[in-house]
Amino acid sequence: MRQWSRITKHFGIASLPHCLIAPLFVAPFLVAPLLITTLSAQQTTFRSSVDLIAVDAIVIDRSGQPILSLGSDRFDVSINGSRRRVLSAEYVGGTGSGGVRAARPGSASAIATNVWPGGGDGLAIVLAVDSASFQADEWQRAIGAARMFLARLNGNDRVGLYAYPFGPILSVTADRGRVLNALRSTAGGSPTIRTAFHLTTAEIVDISAENARSTSPITAVRRTRTGALDVGDDAPTVQRVQDRECPTDANCSARILMDADNAAANLEARLAQGVAGLQSMLRAIALTPGRKIVVLLSGGMPVSDLPGGRPQADDLARSLGDQLAQASAAIYTLQLDATSSSAISAAQPRMSLGASDRVRQVLINGRWLEELSVASGGALLRVETDDGESALERVLRENAGYYLLGVEPGASDRDGRLRELKVKVRERGATVRHRRWVIVPTR
To answer: Which of 25, 149, 188, 408 has its CA 20 to 30 A from that of 55?
Structure first.
């Protein structure tokens, strides 16, 4: 890099400005041969350069250890399904929480800058807390995990705090004491949504899906010859809840439907609040330059896993795609989800969840969060029994270093619109984590 600085100073090459959305850099091995000096007395200099998209990607093996020394020829990158040339690949490191890390060239003939703009030493970490997603008994567990994570960080790492929807918010700083003090002022514990018929989140999803499939425009029940209401074969979940809660009341099925509808509306309101909090957080951290890691602590954001079921979530590209493309942040979500409880509970539950129901309950709570995490270049890590120590250790291990790829965009990419990015690596048993969305600005 020092040698390249001397070259650019000698020839008077102006460096390209960094772009917030898709940082650009000059590849020296492409620029130098294009500097043509005439043989006239004045020696007029012609300047040329190639601008590339800087794409960061983590490559890990089956055990979660980073894979090093991959060249640019080992990566395949596509934008909106069209393959793009990878002109350089650099393994970026430093002194961070994952141990001593050093930059390793990924190609002897194509080396881009090994410092992300504004990155600095260590990791830039944002500790995000979805305060409203935790019930009271899980809140202290979440705060304990946050404190343990802060204690494990390297002294060079910088940390910020973003608790939503009510704060506090603290910009990325090296002052760990400020972060701990701010963390103490967070308040969590969402009010429990109680239903008259002790419905679980999975039952709400199933009942709403059955109701959507029903031929009746209002309910999923039909009137029998005796004048009572019968749920019929098209609403087995309503029938199951009726058998459990009110077996002698033939007319309670309609009330079960109303109960499920009200609970679904409350869950959708919470989902909208959580998405708004994430949007605000992504916009805020986009102002901090460089690659960032977000460790999101959440009790879950329930989303239907069935067509027509509720609560429903908007398409991720429509709701958060632009913010994910601009934030340059890999989100690792720690889902602290107690499988014995859910967002829907009652003072005296009348049943206990079976093993399969528990698994589905956890999957429903983390379905949308997993899509979000993967789209950002991170992962969803479920924490069900311990305090999250192994999950947090995995976050630090995976982020011990990353590849900075220099990708040549196509002319059609330069429209400032959201585009889908895919990165693959030709390495057996390897997993690649990268952001799913990119915006390439116009020239």
So the answer is: 149
* Residue 249 token pair: 């009341």
Coil, helix or strand for 284? helix
* CA-wise closest residue to 184 among 170, 198, 172, 174: 170
CB atoms within 10 A of CB 189: 17
Q: Are 68 and 95 in contact (CB under 8 A)?
A: no
Average pLDDT over residues 6-14: 38
**231 vs 218: CA distance, rounded Å:** 13
Nearest to 357 by CA among 180, 170, 199: 199
Helix then strand then coil, % of the chain, to nearest 5: 35, 25, 40
Instruction: Write out the two tokens for 311.
Output: 């609560």
Cα 394 versus chain centre, distance: 16
Q: 292-298 and 124-130: which strand pairing? A: parallel
> Could you read off the pLDDT of 122-180 as tens digits, one per residue?
789 999 999 989 877 788 888 888 988 898 888 889 999 999 998 999 999 999 999 99
Give the per-residue pLDDT at 99: 41
State which amino acid sits at residue 51.
D
Q: What is the second-level CATH architecture of the domain 124-193+268-398?
A: 3-Layer(aba) Sandwich (3.40)
Buried b (16+ CB within 10 A) or exposed e, 221-248: beeeeeeebbbbebbebbbebbeebbee
Tell me the average pLDDT across 207-220: 69
Question: Which amino acid, residue 312?
Answer: Q
Q: Which residue has the higher pLDDT, 111 or 189?
A: 189
Cα–Cα distance between 426 and 286 in angstroms, integer? 31
Does position 352 have pLDDT exceeding 70, yes or no?
Answer: no
